[in-house]
Amino acid sequence: MSDMSLAFMGYPMLRQAEVFLSVPALERWRMEHTLAFSQECCVCLRAAQRFLPVHAAPGWMSLFRRKQLLAGVPHCEEHGRQDEARLLVQVNPWSEWVCQIALIGMNEAFLLKTRELNQAGDMAPPWKAFPGYEPMSSGWRQGNGEYWFAHVWSPFWQRLSPEERQQYNQRWAAPPDWHSRLMDLP
Questions:
Q1: What is the distance of C-alpha 125 from the center of its chain?
Q2: How far, in Å, CA of 84 to CA of 63, rounded?
């Protein structure tokens, strides 16, 4: 995302970052409902002193129950005076191996660092991310498959050297049709 501002929606102070969890971050998410954060306040980047949760808005059937979406968002003393984090979170599991999290906050540097920390490491391979799609499926040219392949998988794959690509395919036991398709990508 080149422009993270939500000014076009009438919120000039807010920024949004889209995070697709890498495999290590996805494992942490499944176990703890946490993300990797720098130890700086999500508002002002001062040293964190409090770690606050983010809750989903209660539905009309559960008036007093609040589901915790995320734990441990860092805040300084000044910005951590409430019991709720100053970060909005939307969690979108696209498949067993693909989880997109939208973070909305006021500090672009914090959001970018959070994205970087949670997209480090292996991304799930396409045959795991979208198991119903064959290498030449139209799913890679429309909808979530196309978006994920273009914005998550391709940048990850392009950062790998030819040797790292071979190792990745071995580590993830690439099916033959996927192995040849991936090795043909630039």
A1: 16
A2: 17
pLDDT for residue 46 is more than 90: yes
CA–CA separation, 92 and 111 (whole Å):
17
Give the pLDDT band of residue 38 (cuts 50, 70, 90).
very high
CA distance 121 to 142: 26
**Contacts made by residues 65-72, CB under 8 angstroms, sequence distance 24+:** 68/33, 69/33, 70/33, 70/34, 70/35, 71/32, 71/33, 71/34, 72/34, 72/35, 72/37
- Tens of pLDDT, residue by residue over 108-143, are 999 999 999 999 999 999 999 999 999 988 989 999
Structure tokens that stand for 133 in this block: 């799609």
Q: How far apart are CA 127 and CA 21, in angstroms?
A: 16
Tell me the CA distances in angstroms from 185 to 135, 138, 153, 157, 173, one per residue in order.
12, 17, 11, 9, 18
Which of the 8 DSSP states describes residue 174?
-
Listed in sequence order, the DSSP H helices in 53-175 are 108-118, 126-129, 143-148, 154-159, 162-171
The beta-strand segments (E) located in the chain are 5-6, 11-20, 50-55, 68-75, 88-93, 99-105
E strands, 21-77, in order: 50-55, 68-75
Residue-level pLDDT at 64: 62
